[in-house]
Structure prediction request, 1017 residues.
Amino acid sequence: MTEREPIAVVGLDCRFPGARDAREYWSLLMDGRDGTDRVPGQRWDADRYHAASSTAPQSASEARPPGRSNTVRGGFIQDPDAFDPGFFGISPREAAAMDPQQRLLLQCSWRAIEDAAVAPQDLAGTDTGVFVGVMANEWAYLQLADYDRITARYGSGNGYFMGANRVSYHLDLKGPSLAVDTACSSSLYAVHLAMGSLRSGECDYALAAGTNLIMTPVINIFYTQAGLSAPDGRCKPFSASADGIGRAEGVAVLVLRRLSDALTDRQPVYAVLKETGINQDGRSNGITAPNRWAQQRLIESVWQRAGVTADDIRFVEAHGTGTLLGDLIEAQALGELTSGRSGGSVGLGSVKSNFGHAEGAAGIAGLIKTVLALHHRTVPPSRFAADANPRLDLPGRRLSLLKAPLRLPSGTVHAAVSSFGMGGSNAHAVLASAPRAVHRGRDRAPGVFTVSARSPERLRANLLAQADALSRRPENQLAQLCWTSNRVKSRLPYRAAVAAADLPTLAAELRNAAEHVEEAARVDGGRRAAASVAFAFTGQGAQHPRMAASWYRSFPAYARHFDEIDKVLAPHTGRSVRDLVLDGDPEVHRARSAQPALFAVGYAMAAALVESGIAPSYVLGHSIGEFAAACLAGALDVADAARLVARRGALMEALPGDGGMLAVSMGAAEVESLLVRRRLGLAAVNGPGSTVVAGDLGELAALEEQLARRGVAARRLTVSHAFHSPLMEPVVEDFRRECADVPARGPRIPLFSTVNGHQLTGGETMDADYWARQITAPVRFADAASALLAAGVTHVVEIGPRAVLTPLLARLKPDAGHPVRLHAAHPGEHASDHRPQQLFGELWCAGLAPEWDVLYAEADRVPRRLPPYVFDDSFRAWRTGTAPGLPELSAPDVPPGADTAVRGGADRGESCPPAPAADLPDTLSVLTRQLVCRVGGHDPEQVHDHDRLHEDLGFDSIRVMELKARIEDALPRLGTLPIEDLLAGLRTVGDLVGFLRERHVAEGAAAPLPTTPEGTR
Prediction:
């Protein structure tokens, strides 16, 4: 980090007239469109305050009638009052009191951070700074003039400072946070201050922003009275037709970072800020008049510090308001520096020609235009350029208004931006094109694309937005785009994940997911107990040629672990288990190969998932699956396990092939009563009506006939031997001797033994006797799995090459009570070629948090820009700027029903009979929700027990104090509620109900709860 280190623009978002986002902004500029329009009726009655300019005025008052504007046009953004308060945990009442500029800044900041390929949540708690340029505060004028309506909400809803502080608070940013008002140069001043903070090390990320909203005709009238207003509401910078200022509004946020840091993280960079500077006019021809010499000194100083001359500057985004004096002075100041330039002229333009002067946001509007021009290597044309003002002598000053797009050459290109404030505060910046960086992803590398939102409806909108954007991206970026979505788009409660290996399929599946968002379950943000994962390792019979080969191809961590375990097994198997599996060798079905192969696959899958942050709290293994389970639980060393499974398979392979296995749809006790023959035994108990018998083929056939006569379904299993039967007894002692030197130790994490049918506890170890007994003992899967499911597990992942245990677990899972999610790591031979990616998506949608980096190769871990979040725009709150009255908010103060207490006679304002004692808890619950809704202005139908008072419903300390007073008023017998309990101990609505219920019982409140409207005053 150096004092003059370049600063990278890594993210941005904006809304300007005629443009809802940066993409539309660029389109507006390149098309040379006019973004101005008639004053919307929502703002004020334009005709009421309009007086057309007289062609031959007889007096000054006739030329400029008092209280009137000479224009009914300007540059206005659409739906400035649209906001998504619930997304930020802001209550509807508080949102209605907030300056719309605060609302716009919040959403724009979130989107800009996402555009930087960063999750806003990752900046929480960091020293990220927020610097906001703002000039207008008309909301305060409209809100605060009626003293009787002022509440605590209006204090935090108004004020310049709150624009920056609001962003810092809701995003939990701990760096500098300030608002800057230098009139029209405010936002470029904010950029300058942000650069200084980054260069000094005061912050590592900075949000530099500008905002301006036109809510009243006050400034229009001022401009008209000062002779500065263009009658048609359009700025015509440097044009012969220039006749004044047309006003505009907008909001924009840049995400800034030191260039060296951005390049280290391979973060996409739009452009580079090489240098900025600020100064003041001092005394000039008037406080509102520009000063040529101050502008010239500033530009010259910034260029010198940036190490550039006029020969290096390809184009200048001028302040360019379209006033005769302002254009002349700016042209003179620039011309002193450019007139001696070698080569051609410097391109000149001003975004104000497209939609007007955005005042507090004007500097950042021009800066973003320049950033995008350097990014696209094309400078948009300037409107009204065909008729340059000859009195400015632009050709003589080597300045050229751009009539058509200017294509920029390859290599480093420099540009400059100016912004001058009405009171004499000037700002200037020099930018350069971003360093060229090529980060190619792997062709056909799969990935899993994640999208999350606050509601099912928003999930649909965001899925469609991503699908539309992905259809325009290069194919080799698929895995990089997926990785970015995992980092940026994965933190919200409603989720969808799509795995794919090509972009067309990914886009199509995202659109398909958008049609089924109602199936998306809500992932609770921490209210439930932490996720508890169990791994269930599949036993023999799940093997098949090329099993889990897609894991090896597409999951680097699995491939690495599989290679490692293959090396450990090789001395004992005499060949590569990896090659056996991946080559599709049918030898995999023989016991001597199947058992080490299943162990290797299960071990590598489990190790890769643990490395990915999916670590089990419990393990269970079915037959041969217990060896990998024991390794993961720490009860068996990997080297010992490899030796034992190889020896176990070889011993069983050497036995005669005169046995078989039969799956019987009957309970274990009933089956066992039929096993009177010596060479048959109970092999596995998989469920209440799912039992496996193993033994001599002839005796098995006799049993099968007996079952058929009884009408009991039975099915032969395709196996090489009668595993877990008396026919295995000849190898037991040999295997016991093989296990003799295995340390006798218990598991470090709970292991549910399918030999014992319960969790190993106390002195129970997996010693030589255990492993020897496991060969002939029945697999008591049903008992062990039932105990596991009762232990509080939330997710069970079957580890193995086929879903064998998952359907068994589904039948054992209790219908009610603690919910358990079941997942098969690899469903079988017909699993997708990108099954690991699918599994990660399934686990994430089910509430787990994988370490996404492990799923991707290093070349695919490159940030790429994705469309930012699409907010809910249904909320509206506005005041029209019509004087002298003070109209009500356009949005209702409280949703229907929020003021209603308990339903019943209270709806008619009548008294209700006391509720029966048994009904008091429910009555208390309803009343509590109604009070919460009354304070926050929420729709009662949308408030639930799991909603968090602070994060979801926007209850800060002021709202909590108001809620406390209302509860005490509604329930006087509860006495004074301790504020420390309300602030610290009660997180959700359900917590509050429980607290009040306990206090109600403790106070012995026998009187009925109030059910009249007075209870919610």
Observations:
- DSSP finds 35 helices and 27 strands in the chain.
- The first strand starts at residue 7 and ends at 15.
- Residues 591-611 form the longest helix (21 residues).
